[in-house]
Amino acid sequence: MRRHLAELGALSADATVEQAVETAYRLLGHAPSVLLLATLEDGIGVERRPNLPGTVEQRRNWSFALPQMLEDIETANLPAVIARSLSRTDDIESKGGDS
């Protein structure tokens, strides 16, 4: 992901996981999609994915515990940055609407 974002010129090649996550969600926030989702793993900068398609015996998918308590995630900075990146309130306000 970092390499791809760097190739697009949106991120430096030596960016941190947190910078890559923030950049990816900022770009997603500009997408014309009706529905945008974020993952808890991205919100706390976890590089290991909970599911790796095509693996059955090699690893236990969907069974990784998050490395932080929910209470800590609720007060962490990166989830708030992601939420702002995906927020469409700027678009709504610029169009003069509130729906």
Automatic annotation (TrEMBL):
Top-level taxonomic group: Bacteria
Protein name, per record: 4-alpha-glucanotransferase
Pfam family, one: Glyco_hydro_77
Family from the record: Belongs to the disproportionating enzyme family.
Protein species of origin: Bremerella volcania
Gene3D superfamilies in UniProt: Glycosidases
Keyword line: Carbohydrate metabolism, Glycosyltransferase, Transferase
Enzyme Commission number(s) from the entry: 2.4.1.25
Reactions listed under catalytic activity: Transfers a segment of a (1->4)-alpha-D-glucan to a new position in an acceptor, which may be glucose or a (1->4)-alpha-D-glucan
